[in-house]
């Protein structure tokens, strides 16, 4: 049997707002195996970000179980959670979350600063490698404002890779990008997935979901559908088919 990278059981998360309780997740269970590329779909407010934040150990569920890479997350201390986040998970957000006025290479080095086992030379080497992997080997010293949106997202992807995480969690990672740039980024995600990286990718867009092998659809905090995609589209092929006038950025 393949290794389970994510295993959640009856996960619930509620938020108390004054006298009102919001049931953002109402008991969600699934497993994601090592090497899968899963998209999470669902309308606004369906609980996608709430779930991803729990998967990324940024938030704790109200109840239910969660195991990442065989480690039970419940009852871990803040420090242990931070270590798991740093060593096992790469995050990518819609708004890139890069430090302004800080070069691409320094942004990518950031997660390694917390790792005392990595020397500064090793840090630089790994950051350069990660930036080369995302096609930015010639933009090492550009700051975010000197990069396009797609390039900034590539820096964020390089940053997420620099610690060799067991999985990448992305929340609307193409949400701010035009179609062409989105497909370029999806081409990159498909390449990373081919190298064995497990990816969980939240998106609003059905065409983005066709690039993944499996889609989980949430509605009002519950799983509506969980299906395998038997005809995964190649983002590189779709990119090649886009009309050139679409290239506005
Ligand atoms: N910190 C919080 N406090 C109170 N309620 C919250 C909090 N975070 C999320 N919620 C509520 O939980 C529900 C799910 O929110 P969530 O952000 O997970 O939705 P989403 O599917 O990511 O939506 P979108 O597509 O708009 O990003 C919403 O009703 C939201 O208002
Ligand atoms: Mg969201």
Automatic annotation (TrEMBL):
Annotated InterPro entries: AAA+_ATPase (IPR003593), ABC_transporter-like_ATP-bd (IPR003439), ABC_transporter-like_CS (IPR017871), ABC_transpr_LolD-like (IPR015854), MacB-like_ATP-bd (IPR017911), P-loop_NTPase (IPR027417)
Keywords: ATP-binding, Nucleotide-binding, Transport
Coiled-coil regions listed: none
MF annotations from Gene Ontology: ATP binding
CDD domains named in the record: ABC_MJ0796_LolCDE_FtsE
Residues covered by the ABC transporter domain: 6-245
Keyword Cell inner membrane tagged: no
Xref: Gene3D superfamilies: P-loop containing nucleotide triphosphate hydrolases
Protein name per UniProt: ABC transport system ATP-binding protein
Top-level taxonomy: Bacteria, Pseudomonadati, Bacteroidota, Flavobacteriia, Flavobacteriales
């Amino acid at each position: 049997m393949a290794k389970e990278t994510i295993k959640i059981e009856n996960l619930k998360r509620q938020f108390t707002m004054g006298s009102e309780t919001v049931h953002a997740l109402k008991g969600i269970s699934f497993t994601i195996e090592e090497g899968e590329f899963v998209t999470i779909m669902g309308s606004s407010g369906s609980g996608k970000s709430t779930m991803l934040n729990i998967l990324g150990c940024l938030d704790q569920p109200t109840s239910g179980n969660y195991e990442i890479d065989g480690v039970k997350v419940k009852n871990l201390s803040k420090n242990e959670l931070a270590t798991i986040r740093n060593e096992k998970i790469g995050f990518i957000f819609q708004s890139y979350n890069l430090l302004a006025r800080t070069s691409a290479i320094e942004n990518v080095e950031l997660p390694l600063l917390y790792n005392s086992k990595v020397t500064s030379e090793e840090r630089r080497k790994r950051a350069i490698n990660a930036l080369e992997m995302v096609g930015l080997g010639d933009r090492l010293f550009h700051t975010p404002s000197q990069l396009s949106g797609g390039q900034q997202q590539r820096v964020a992807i390089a940053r997420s890779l620099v610690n060799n995480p067991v999985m990448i969690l992305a929340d609307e990672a193409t949400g701010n990008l035009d179609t062409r740039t989105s497909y370029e980024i999806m081409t990159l995600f498909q390449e990373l997935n081919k190298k064995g990286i497990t990816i969980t990718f939240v998106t609003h867009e059905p065409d983005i979901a066709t690039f993944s092998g499996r889609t989980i659809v949430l509605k009002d905090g519950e799983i509506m559908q969980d299906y395998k995609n038997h005809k995964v589209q190649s983002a590189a092929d779709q990119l090649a088919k886009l009309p050139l006038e679409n290239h506005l950025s």
